[in-house]
Amino acid sequence: MTTARTFSEFEGTLSAPEPSERKCGRCKEPMQHQLWTSRDEGYEDSKFTCPAGHVEWVDGLDS
Ligand SMILES: [Zn+2]
User: Which pLDDT tens digit goes with each residue over 1-29?
Assistant: First the structure.
């Protein structure tokens, strides 16, 4: 899978934020996790947001 694609929150749905184990890559604060599902439900990604507003996207399926 390529990592070069563009994400758009407006083409899918974000779940409610929940705490995660992930730490922000920039400020090391604990991040909140939201699951993003594309509008056609073809794939999912994970969106992580830290208290300072940094955002990290991770491909949905860990394998
Ligand atoms: Zn941060």
Answer: 444 556 565 689 999 999 999 999 999 99
For residue 57, report the distance from its CA to the centre of ligand 1, in Å: 13
Of 40, 38, 18, 13, the closest CA to residue 30 belongs to: 18
CA of 24 to the centre of ligand 1 (A): 5
Neighbours of ion ligand 1 (CB under 5 A): 24, 26-27, 50, 52, 54
> For residue 56, what are the β-bridge partners?
48
Whole-model pTM: value is: 0.75
pLDDT at residue 63 above 60? Answer: no
